[in-house]
Amino acid sequence: MNSVSTVSAPQQALAVALLQFNPIVGDLQGNARTIIDMARQAYASGARLVVTPEMALCGYPPEDLLLRPAFMAACDDATQHIAQSLSDLPDLHLVLGHPMTAGDDVRTRSWSVPRRLNAATLIRGGQLVASYAKRELPNYQVFDERRYFISGREAGLGPVVVDVLGWRVALLVCEDAWFDEPAQSAVAQGAQALVVLNASPFHAGKRVEREARMGDCARQLGLPLVYAHMTGGQDEVVFDGASFAVNAQGQVCARAPSFEVASLAVTLQPHGEVTGNLAEPLSTDAEIWAALVCGVRDYVGKNGFPGAIIGLSGGIDSALVLAIAVDALGADKVRTVMMPSPYTADISWIDAKDMADRLGVRHDEIAIAPEFEAFKTSLAPLFVGRQEDTTEENIQARIRGTLLMALSNKTGAIVLTTGNKSEMATGYCTLYGDMAGGFAVIKDLVKTTVYRLSRWRNAQAAALGQVEPIPDRIITRPPSAELRPDQKDQDSLPEYDVLDDILERYMEHDQSIDEIVAAGYPQADVDKVTRLLKINEYKRRQAPVGIRITHRSFGRDWRYPITSRFRA
Length: 568
Description:
This protein is an alpha/beta fold and 568 residues long.
C-alpha cells in the first residue's frame, strides 16, 4: 500500500461519533432501538457522521441465521425502520452495519450457495443512499464468512465513496482494511477519509495489532481513519471495543474505553488531523480479566439465566472462576457448593469456605462419601478382581457433576465449569463429571496463566484496600484433583511451565514435535503432551463452550478429527 491521496482537503471539520455498543444476536428490534437512541444522542452532541460496528443490526456472528430467508427479510425491515426513525434529522449521516441479500440463493438438499453481503449502508434523510459490500472475507480462526457471504467483487460492487458535508468518505468493513486493494480503490475514487466498521473478536494482544495496522494504512494513504468496533460477548467470542481514530500520519488520536458501551466523539480536521478523547489502554492482564468478566456477564445475561453455580473445591481453578463470576454477576447471583470426598484435605474445604465468605456468596457443603460408597457397592460384583484406578476417581467427579446439574435444574442457574486449557488439552478432566455444565469460563487459560491472573486479581484488591478474594494458600499449595490419597497433578503431567510452553508451541504456533524438542524440551514430555492432546479430542468435542482468550482456542478455531493417525 503506497499510494497517497492527492485530493484537495475538505474546507471544514467533520464531527463523527463511533457507536461502540453491545448488540444481541437476532434481537433486531432491540439492536435497532439502541442504534436509533445512540444516533440521536450523538446528533444532539453535534455529530453529523455516525458509524456503527460491523453487523451491528443483527449482532455478530449470526452464523446460520443468515441462511434463513425470514431472518434476512426481518433485517431488511429493521434497516428501513432505522432509516425512517431518523428521517427528521436531515443532515445526519448514519453508516449502518447489516447483512444484505445479493440475489436468489442456489440451494438443493445436497448443496447450497447463499448470496449474502456483509454490508455498510449510508442512511440519510430516511433513505438508503449507498451500500458497500465487504470485499475480503476471512475464513480462518473463528471466522467462517465464506460459508455465508459473497465478496463485493463477486457481486459486481465497487468501492463506495460518499459525500458527507463536504467530505468524501470511503466505507470499508473490517478485513478490508487489513488488505491494500479496498482502501487503494477508495483513494482512486477521491476518498478524503476512511470509515471502517468492525466486529473483531478479542484475543490477547489484538488491540495493539489492529491499531498498528490501521495506523500503517492511514499513513501510507495520507488519510485519517476512524474505526468503529463492537463490544460485548457472544457465545465463545468477546469483542473488546476500544474504537479509535488515527490521523493521516498514522497516530492514534482518539480511543474509546475497552469492554464498555460508549459513543466516541471524533473530529476530523482538514489536512488529516484528528481530535478526540484518548482512553488509556488496559494492561495485558487487565484486558484478559475484562474479557473473562464480559464473557460470563453476557453469556449468563443474554441467555436469561438467573445466576450461576460453581463447584468450589478449594483449588486454584474453581477459585479463579468464582472471582470472575462475582465480578461479572455480583455476589447475589452466584452460589458455590463444596462436595468433599474421602480424599478431600481439610485445608480444601476450609479454604473454599474462606473464599466464599470473602466474596459474600451463598456456600453449601454436600459430602459425597455416601453416594461414592453406593456406587462402589453396586459395581462391586462387576469389578471383582480389579484394582481401584481412574474409574473410581471419575465416579467421584461424576457424582459432583450430577449434584451440580440437579441444583441447576431446580433453580435455573447455570453451572460454570472450572477446567483450564492445560487440562482440556491433556484430558485431565472427566466427561460428565467436572466437564458437566453450561459454560467453561477458563477453558482458554493455561494453568500458568490461571496462577498469574489469580495473583493479579488479588493485587488489584490489595491496591484498593479491599480483601483479597483468593486465599493465599489456594495459590501457593501444589495443585491436586484430590481423587485418591496424596494425589498431585504432576503425578500424571509434566510441570505446568513445561506443559504450557509445549502446548503453546504445538497448538497455537503449529510447531512440530522435532522443532519443540530442538528448542530444549525433553522428548518424553513432548511425546506425552502431544499424544494426550491427540487422544482427548473426543472429550473436547463434548465440552461446554468457553471464552476465547488466545488466538487459538479449543472452539471454533480448533477443528481436528477425532479419528486420526497423523503424528506431527
